[in-house]
Amino acid sequence: MTLTTLVIGARASLRESAIAQALVPGVTCAVILEGLPDGHSTLDGHPIAPGLVRIAPGCLCCTGNLVLRVTLNRILRHPPARLFISLASAGHVGQLRQWLSQAPYDSLLTLEATLEAAS
Predict the structure, then answer these.
(1) How far is 79 from 1, CA to CA, in rounded Å?
(2) Which residues contact 113 (CB under 8 A, 6 or more apart)?
(3) How far is 78 from 41, CA to CA, in rounded Å?
(4) Are the beta carbons of 11 and 116 closer than 8 angstroms?
(5) The whole model's pTM is what?
(6) Which DSSP string corresponds to 40-54?
(7) Does the pLDDT of residue 103 top 70, yes or no?
């Protein structure tokens, strides 16, 4: 099971910094980032870079659902130990959490508490 953390926060740079701080050396990770960075990303050049995927902005449980599903399925073909999903808006974090708790993801992911990136 892949430990999965949803990451929310006001700005992309804050969310990406929170993810960078939560990464553990030697633990395989993947990161799905919704939207573009708002400047220099702390994840640029990080060893996690090959496991980093950016998805165009759009609610991941509504308009971006298909894109997220395809991206997630690709990542889970070779499941990492940790997965971070950064959301541009926290408005539907509950619905996304519920969607990830249903089949087939309920047997593939272990959802952790939502990580709120502080300013």
Answers:
(1) 8
(2) 5
(3) 25
(4) no
(5) 0.91
(6) S-TTTT-TTGGGEEE
(7) yes
Name the residue with tokens 């993810």.
19
Cα dihedral sign, 11-71-29-43: negative
Contacts of 85 (CB under 8 A, 6+ apart): 4, 5, 6, 7, 31, 32, 34, 60, 68, 96
Token pair belonging to 37: 């960075």
Angstrom distance (rounded) from CA 40 to CA 27: 24
Give the span between the Cα atoms of 74 and 20, in whole angstroms. 22
Question: d(Cα 3, Cα 114) in Å, to the nearest integer?
Answer: 12
pLDDT single digits (tens) 1-32: 999 999 999 888 899 999 999 998 889 999 99
CA separation for the pair 20, 56 (Å, rounded): 21
Q: For residue 60, what are its two tokens?
A: 């991941």
* pLDDT, average across residues 78-96: 91
In one-letter notation, the amino acid at residue 26 is G
**Is residue 39's pLDDT more than 80?**
no
